[in-house]
User: Which sequence fits this backbone?
């Protein structure tokens, strides 16, 4: 058994320290980066980069830190901590008074960005149990950490939700492994396809799950709380689409990392006042940058659509680096795959229906849970490419994504037929040992300079 | 004699029975999962033929569709579809057996666009709602067959074929029990029998099985082993393992006991409800079914006890998330409960893998002190 403390416990302390940061000068920031390791320094520099205004610090303090520390506090107070995957709406759990959500993939991301050794010790621990090395690091990292709860090194979830059966085997299976090992109940959904009867089954399973959760938490969800959660979500949705509109400008006034802030908020604090404030800040910064014509590079060379996820192993050397080189990161499946909608709700029943519809349409669930994964994925990303005027697409090539890997050819053929070249990378989004950042940079730059730029020139002629 | 006939059938795709079936004007549809309700197809004179890799290790064309990170069994099957080996099929029924299979069917549609490809939606959970859903799905499958092939599928005929399946399942259990104590058969024979079952009309398979069961072989071994894990139709691989002295006396895989051991017998109830319950409950033996880990573990333990095995081989193909993760958990739990296990990760039909597999089996036998 690993003796290393789990991600939640370790990051809780770090994030509490970050909560104390108020105003800082450039030299103070520089000093801070010298106190920590390379990765943490890059994480701090990327979040607090001046192009983000105060959005980066707000995200760290009011989204990430609250998400983690509310779970830690809930444990102390005897409330239930419900571990959810990224493709489950956290607003349902926020509607409970005595339960808080903790999002698996966010914990892996925090591990990868904020901790010495990144998520590797937890990954290694999972491997030591015999789990194969081709499973998904997005969840195995956090779940490897959760397994250390057996020895008290991590806070153990009280229950788990699995929303991936029918959309991702790797995610569903590793959650099952941990639920079985920790002996905690697991509540499950199942997506069959895109039809009316498929939705009806999903809806029934979801409503049953809500009943079971209410029993488990020992509380009926309060109508006012759940209606408020959905209404807050509606405000965020409006702001989300406002931000999306800003992305249509070239050069793009929305910084690359806003995609991360946006989906990070979606996966953790959606339905809360903090999420609204977060999105207001994102829109505000984008608006100001548009007015000022700010863009870090001389010109915007590539408007890239990331068709699955981004890389979370070094934000500074990828997200910030891309932007500094004129490569815009428009969005990805995590951020845009679900296309959030507004729901008018008055009662608890309305609110539940809205949340079910949201969950059904979530990024990845929608595409990879479709009757034809390849076609749905392609359809959604052709729409986005055209809507955002993307001139290229990049696939992270995460080796664990067997579903997207299986149908990449369909996506590439579809995008290529619309004149959008697609770069297929090969790397692990949460584990730098698979492909180092420098190699990813090289491949992205090669693609942009030799494919995207040349096509632009040809089009101009 | 029948056993050699069975091995001959298992070594080909379009066998003589399939050719005869087609020459009589009947259709053959391909599928890839034991959740496929055979009775419904056969009641419409449609032969359900289970896709398999037929030990084909060349996946060069398939790899340009699927990726190297996808299961080699799926890539092998896709290769056979792309190179025309499955052209005798009149259509396909796709099932989300796993993400790899789902992608494989997407790619088949992309590359070949078959005229008939029906999606049979099989839930990953077993409860009242999913059983009701699956019952409707089976009705939808029946209608799709009727519309496509111009046949009428009556409930009486489905019941008749359900009873035929019951007979075969009963006979298969008898066959397995023959193997448990003092086996007259090798595991490679059993896999060949299972492969033949998935490739023949039921009425042709039953007499072959009965006649094969009457045969006697001298079987030598060092240890009795149960084979569990992902779908496995590689007769040659089993032969190599058995040459080391590890006699496979039972399989809980879906090309083995998993496909029939727990299958319910027709009880006279409404046929679609019965079929939904029969097939979905039986599918609990597959790692794709969530919330059923304990069921699978107990299934392995029950068979292991009845067959008095010395150990268990938990195998899966590389990149198989479902069984890769499941086998890690099973290994921990079965070992804890005193059942020696070997986790064997492999590439489908890869001869390059044989040396490594032999070494691991040898080491396992030594561990079993055999």
Assistant:
């Amino acid at each position: 058994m690993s003796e290393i403390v789990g991600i939640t416990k370790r990051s809780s302390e770090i994030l509490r320290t970050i909560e104390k940061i108020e105003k800082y000068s450039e030299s103070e920031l520089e000093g801070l980066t010298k106190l920590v390791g390379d990765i943490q320094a890059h994480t701090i520099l990327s979040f607090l980069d001046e192009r983000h205004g105060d959005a980066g610090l707000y995200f760290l303090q009011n989204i990430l830190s609250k998400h983690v520390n509310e779970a830690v506090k809930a444990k102390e107070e005897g409330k239930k901590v419900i571990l959810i995957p990224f493709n489950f709406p956290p607003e349902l759990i926020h509607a409970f008074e005595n339960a808080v959500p903790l999002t698996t993939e966010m914990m892996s991301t925090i591990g990868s960005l904020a901790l010495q050794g990144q998520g590797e010790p937890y990954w290694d621990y999972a491997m030591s149990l015999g789990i194969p090395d081709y499973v998904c690091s997005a969840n195995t990292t956090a779940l490897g950490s959760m397994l250390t709860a057996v020895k008290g090194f991590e806070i153990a979830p009280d229950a788990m939700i699995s929303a991936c059966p029918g959309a991702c085997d790797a995610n569903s299976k590793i959650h099952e492994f941990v639920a079985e090992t920790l002996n905690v109940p697991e509540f499950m959904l199942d997506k069959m396809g895109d039809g009316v009867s498929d939705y009806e089954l999903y809806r029934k399973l979801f409503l049953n799950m809500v009943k079971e959760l209410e029993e488990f938490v020992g509380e009926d969800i309060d109508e006012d709380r759940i209606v408020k959660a959905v209404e807050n979500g509606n405000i965020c949705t409006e702001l989300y689409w406002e931000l999306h509109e800003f992305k249509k400008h070239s050069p793009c006034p929305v910084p690359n990392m806003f995609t991360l802030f946006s989906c990070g908020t979606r996966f953790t604090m959606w339905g809360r006042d903090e999420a609204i404030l977060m999105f207001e800040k994102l829109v505000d910064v984008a608006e100001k940058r548009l007015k000022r014509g700010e863009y870090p590079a001389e010109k915007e060379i590539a408007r890239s659509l990331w068709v699955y996820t981004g890389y979370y192993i070094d934000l500074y050397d990828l997200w910030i680096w891309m932007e500094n080189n004129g490569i815009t990161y428009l969005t990805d499946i995590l951020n845009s795959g679900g296309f959030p909608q507004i729901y008018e709700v008055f009662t608890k029943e309305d609110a539940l229906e809205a949340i079910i519809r949201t969950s059904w349409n979530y990024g990845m669930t929608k595409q990879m849970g479709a009757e034809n994964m390849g076609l749905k994925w392609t359809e959604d990303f052709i729409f986005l490419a055209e809507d955002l005027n993307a001139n290229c697409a990049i696939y992270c090539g995460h080796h664990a994504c067997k579903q997207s890997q299986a149908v990449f050819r369909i996506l590439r053929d579809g995008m290529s037929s619309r004149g959008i070249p697609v770069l297929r990378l090969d790397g692990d989004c949460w584990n730098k040992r698979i492909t180092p950042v420098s190699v990813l940079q090289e491949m992205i730059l090669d693609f942009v300079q030799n494919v995207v730029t040349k096509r632009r020139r040809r089009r101009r002629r | 004699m029948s056993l050699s006939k069975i091995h001959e059938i298992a070594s080909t795709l379009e066998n003589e029975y399939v050719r005869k079936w087609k020459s009589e004007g009947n259709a053959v549809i391909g599928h890839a999962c034991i959740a496929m309700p055979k009775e419904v197809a056969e009641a419409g004179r449609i032969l359900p033929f289970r896709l398999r890799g037929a030990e084909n290790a060349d996946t060069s064309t398939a790899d340009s569709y699927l990726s190297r990170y996808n299961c080699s069994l799926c890539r092998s099957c896709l290769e056979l579809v792309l190179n025309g080996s499955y052209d005798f099929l009149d259509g396909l029924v796709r099932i989300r057996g796993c993400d790899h299979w789902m992608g494989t069917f997407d790619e088949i549609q992309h590359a070949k666009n078959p005229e008939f490809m029906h999606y049979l939606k099989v839930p990953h959970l077993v409860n009242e709602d999913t059983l009701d859903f699956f019952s409707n799905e089976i009705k939808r499958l029946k209608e799709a067959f009727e519309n496509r092939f111009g046949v009428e599928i009556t409930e009486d005929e489905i019941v008749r074929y359900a009873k035929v399946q019951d007979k075969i399942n009963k006979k298969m259990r008898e066959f397995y029990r023959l193997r448990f104590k003092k086996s007259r058969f090798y595991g490679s024979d059993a896999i060949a029998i299972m492969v033949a079952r998935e490739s023949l009309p039921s009425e042709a398979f039953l007499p072959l099985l009965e006649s094969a069961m009457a045969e006697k072989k001298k079987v030598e071994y060092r240890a009795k082993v149960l084979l569990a894990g992902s779908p496995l139709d590689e007769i040659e691989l089993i032969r190599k393992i058995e040459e080391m002295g590890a006699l496979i006396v039972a399989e809980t895989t879906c090309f083995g006991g998993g496909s029939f051991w727990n299958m319910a017998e027709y009880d006279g109830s409404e046929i679609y409800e019965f079929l939904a319950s029969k097939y979905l409950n039986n599918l609990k033996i597959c790692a794709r079914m969530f919330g059923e880990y304990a069921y699978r573990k107990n299934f392995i333990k029950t068979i292991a006890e009845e067959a008095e095995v010395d150990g268990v081989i938990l195998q899966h193909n590389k990149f198989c998330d479902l069984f890769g993760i499941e086998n890690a958990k099973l290994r921990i739990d079965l070992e804890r409960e005193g059942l020696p296990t070997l986790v064997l990760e492999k590439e489908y039909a890869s001869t390059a893998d044989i040396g490594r597999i032999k070494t691991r089996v040898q080491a396992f036998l030594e561990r079993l002190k055999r």
Notes: Residues 223-246 of chain A form the longest helix (24 residues).
